[in-house]
Each structure stands twice: as C-alpha cells, then as structure tokens.
Amino acid sequence: MSIRLFKVGSTWHYRFQIDGKRVQRSTHETDRQRANKIAEQAHRRARLWARDGREIPTVAELVSQWLEIHEASASVAHIKVVETFGRLHLHGLDEVLIDELTTERVELARVKHLEAHAPVSANQWLKVLRLLCNWAVRRGVIPAVPFRVKVLKVQKKPRAILPVNLAHDWLAAIDAREGDRDGVRTAVRLMLGLGLRESETITARWEWLDVERRTYTPGRTKGREADPLPVPDWLFAYLMERHKPEGYMLHKRNVRPYAPGFTRLAMLAANQAVGAPHITAHRLRGTFATLLSRSGVPPQDIQRVLRHKNLATTAAYLEVDMQTVARGQAIIADSIGFGLRHQSSVAPVANVDP
Question: Which of 74, 94, 149, 205 lies at a CB distance of 3.0 to 4.6 Å from 90, suitable for a disulfide?
C-alpha cells in the first residue's frame, strides 16, 4: 500500500500499511511538500524495522544519541564541539537518515558551511560528521560510512606563540588586570609552565602536586591519562606561596569553579598591553610545546607531556623557528667545509725586506 497524505484541519497526516499493520501519524506540517518528505522517511524507517529489526536515525537524532551516551565520559570540549555541530551546522542534513548521507549531499552541505566559514572550519565540520557516522558503524546501525568526501587543502599559516622577550611583561599585565584574584593568574602560569589545557587548570588540585619530587600529575585529563610533569623552579615558587594541603588550586571567590573561556579576556587585554600576538589558552599551550622543541626536547617526549595519542597532533602544535633553521644550516655548511672557519687557517707568507 502506498503512502496516503490527508489533512486534519490545516495539518497534514500520513497513513500506510506495513505487514498488515496500519501506521498513521501527524507530520505536524502545513506544507504538503515538507509533509510528503516526512511521510516517505517514516515509511522507509518502518520498512527497515519490519525487515531487519533496526531503526536508522536521522543526523539530528544521531547527534542527540551521541551526546546522551558520551555526556558523562567525553571531555567538556569534545561535547561542546558535537553539540555546536548539531545545533548550528547541520545545513539541511538534520532530517536526512544517516544511511542516505550521499557524497553529493555532504558536499552540498559543506558548500553552505563555506558560505560563512573558513576552509579549516569546513574540515573540522567534516571531521565531526565522520566521527558520528563511524560511531554508528561501530554500533552496527549502518554497515559503513555512506559518503566519501575529501578534506579541503588548506594553506597552513604560522600561528601565534608568546615571544620569550615579552613573557615577563605579559604575565605582569595579567597580574595588574586581575589584582588580588588568583584564578586567572594561576591558570595562565599552569598553561605556560606545564602545558595544561584551560579545562585542566579548572580542575587542578593541590593533592596532585608532589612537593617532594616537584612534579604535578593532572588527575582529570582529556585523554584520561597523564605522566608526572616536572614543575619548573619559577612555577614551583609561585605555587608554594599559595600552597594548601588539598582542594582546587583556583576557584571563584564564592568557591564555585570557573567556566570554560574564563582566561580569554585577561589574555586579550595583556596582548594589547604589551604588543603580543593573538595569544589564547590554546596558543599558550602551543607556546609551551614550541619552546620545548626549540630547547631540544624530542617530539616523542613533548607528545607525552601534552598527553596526545598521536604524534601528528603534537607536530601540529610546533611552530617553525627560521632562526633555528638558519643556525642548523650554518652547522651543516661548517661540517661540509663551506663555512669560513674551514678556509685555510695558514696566513700567506708576507714579503720580508732583507
């Protein structure tokens, strides 16, 4: 039996039969074209359920299911990315069944995303969509990701890091703005000195600071794993002035925790005050990683400190220092014999008058 559309008042309803059972529902739509689309989708889902005992969710439903399952286990940042994707960036895919996510449909949705966002944002958008579909594959909802869309090629731009010659003045500008409020002041030092994420400074506790060994072990991290981090002398001295036996390292005056993004305004003000580039919480972590690299720390060690599962993720944090490259080129030239020092050191014999 085919789908039948009919009106009840101004609202369209649909009716069809599956295995001798009648299904009748309201589309909650007054537009016939939209109502017909809803009816066809309902008919297809009913046939799949009757045949295979499985229900295919729409993209919007898949987002809701992912959030419900991962709310207690995923990081705050991860939850926020997927929630924002589902709330603002579906671009017409919200009512599409996930096994109908054809390459053409995904590419058209990405075109809509690019109308208001940069290519790098479109790649992140595609990454989230793939994350959701791969999760559906692992659950057995669909056999495979139904689309093949390549990421866009994006010209990588150098990202800001805090210049070492401005670091002291930058921290002083933070302190001047915050006054006797230690929350932001402590957070930026934990990010600069230990490479912590902003979310990890919010949950930082005094019990995780080993005073005897001068190490700090993050207890709540994005990847659920961490090694003891050596605390540099300057940061250790700062923390010991405020040391407590237990409790959160930073909190508001009403003892409530800070919200994500609580360091942003202070950092932007400090950037303007000392003429620093666009330093944010993420770029402060990038500064930490880049300075370790320039100091000769191997990438694998930086990966462990940053708690990345993939070395490629760590590599993306490291900014190129052309002065370091130039010094390396000079060392290579010197070892080959192209350097001035390897020119003949024997001075020519001068003519001596008899």
Answer: 94
pLDDT digits (tens, 9 = 90+) for 70-88: 988 887 778 999 999 999 9
Write the Ramachandran bin of 147: left for phi over 0, alpha for psi from -120 to 50, otherwise beta: beta
Q: Could you list the residue range(s) of the whole structural domain that residue 119 is in? A: 59-138
Looking at residue 221, its pLDDT comes to: 64
pLDDT digits (tens, 9 = 90+) for 282-340: 999 999 999 999 888 999 999 999 988 889 888 888 887 777 778 778 888 888 888 65
Domain count, the chain: 3
Residue where one domain finishes, among candidates 16, 33, 52: 52
Q: Which of 269, 190, 264, 262 is nearest to 229 (CA)?
A: 190
Question: Which residues touch 312 (CB under 8 Å, ≥6 apart)?
Answer: none
Q: What angle do CA 145, 151, 156 make, to 5 degrees?
A: 150
* Structural tokens at position 349: 């014999």
Cα distance from N-terminal residue to C-terminal residue, the chain: 123
Q: Does the predicted TM-score (pTM) go above 0.85?
A: no
DSSP string, 55-118: -PPBHHHHHHHHHHHHTTTS-HHHHHHHHHHHHH--TT-TTSBGGG--HHHHHHHHHHHHTTS-
107 and 16 in a common domain: no
SS3 (DSSP) at 248: strand
Residues contacting residue 26 through CB under 8 Å, at least 6 positions apart: 8, 11, 12, 13
Block residue for tokens 């050596």? 230
pLDDT number for residue 53: 64
* 69 and 39, same domain (yes or no): no
| 329 located within any domain | no
**21-29 and 209-210 beta bridge pairing:** unpaired
> Is the same domain home to 76 and 199?
no
In this predicted model, what pLDDT tens digit does every residue of 173-232 receive, in sequence order?
999 999 988 999 999 999 999 999 998 999 999 999 999 999 999 886 665 667 899 999
